[in-house]
UniProtKB/TrEMBL annotation:
It comes from the Bacteria. SMART domains: REC. The keyword Phosphoprotein applies. Keywords: Phosphoprotein. This is Response regulator. Gene3D superfamilies: 3.40.50.2300. Signal peptide: none annotated. Residues 5-122 form the Response regulatory domain. One of its GO terms (biological process) is phosphorelay signal transduction system. The lineage of its organism: Bacteria, Bacillati, Cyanobacteriota, Cyanophyceae, Nostocales. The modification 4-aspartylphosphate is found at D55. InterPro entries: Bact_response_regulator, CheY-like_superfamily, Sig_transdc_resp-reg_receiver.
Amino acid sequence: MTKKRILVVDNEVYIQEVAKICLETVADWEVVTASSGQEGITQAESYQPDAILLDVMMPDMDGITTFEKLQANPATKRIPVILLTAKVQASDRRRYAQLGMKAAIAKPFNPLELANQVATALGWNQEN
């Protein structure tokens, strides 16, 4: 079974590190990080992750714009995206779903639950 590859895009290095450590330790996934929307798009093109965890509130290019650019790119449009956001009201979740995002995980997230939340949102069996 090949190891799942996850791209974490967040302008806060602390969030990147916590997510990376948790996903690698708890789920044994391979994790790459990016600090901006543009870097995330570049990483997604070259790395071809199995999923992207994307922060909504970022300077320069926010998560929604980054997602739209990922969707417009033939090389990245099939990669499932899960938002990491403090905005997880029902209306926000509906809007994210309408845009085509797989899920939204609330920040701050529980580091020990993150891998399970990602796997559940994407329908992955934890053994994969």
